[in-house]
Specification:
Layout: H1 3-7, H2 13-36, H3 39-52
Length: about 55
């Protein structure tokens, strides 16, 4: 066994960790989009934006 092989025993581990992180991030984004598209939240956000812009 070479010195490099002893130092890096899990060569593909970081790729798997990145893949899992991306999967969790996409799932979280999906949940957030579902919440934001709901009517009560949409109404609340629209009202807040209108107040901020002094439209409503």
């Amino acid at each position: 066994m070479t010195a490099r092989a002893r130092l890096v025993p899990e060569a593909g581990a970081s790729t798997a960790e990145y893949a899992m992180t991306m999967l969790v991030a996409c799932a979280f984004a999906g949940v957030l989009m579902g919440i934001i598209k709901s009517n009560p939240i949409k109404t609340l956000l629209l009202g807040t934006i209108q107040k901020a812009l002094n439209i409503g």
